[in-house]
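Changelog note: in this version the structure field was regenerated for every chain. One regenerated record is shown below for reference.
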Amino acid sequence: MNSSRQQIRQQIRLRRQQLSDSEQRLAAESLLSQLQSFQPFVDAQRVGIYLANDGEIDPDPIIQWLWQQQRQVYLPLLHPFCKGHLLFLQYQHDTLLIRNRFGIPEPSLDVTQISPLNELDIILCPLVAFDANGNRLGMGGGFYDRTLSRWQTNANNKPLPVGLAHDCQHVDSLPHQHWDVPLPTIITPSKQWQWTIKSI
């Protein structure tokens, strides 16, 4: 099963890396349009999001729109004390970013900018691949699975996790493990995929 997951990961990463700059830009703009018709996103005041890496669909148009709408934007930071987990820190125009050990930009640790997870309304999550049942395949570190493992038991089921992906990242079926956290919604440039996720 692990080898199958790794093969899918390699294939889909290559597929998205081969998208041209113009295809990436069009996808990013179309993704924002999809989100603007997704009511939980429209209503959200505090949004966790990521910065694109490794061919991921670029959320920058989303970030710019959120700032224009006076919403609060938060980026993930590798938790310095709780291995394998993420913290979310507020991201503003002048936020200092540094590259973590994976080479991904993240905010410099500032405890005054941290948001408790259940005070975020929504987290827009990156992913490598997804299937028609809401199963998500990430980069293999398990950071989002650990961070979101109890989202359904938080106050008001917050934050709502929503996967963002290119259309080409959809696969028929994903092998999954017991620790994988399925997502109730995945949004691509052309479609909103939604499922009812059983409570943990």
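Spot check on this record: The longest strand covers residues 72-78. The chain has five helices and twelve strands.
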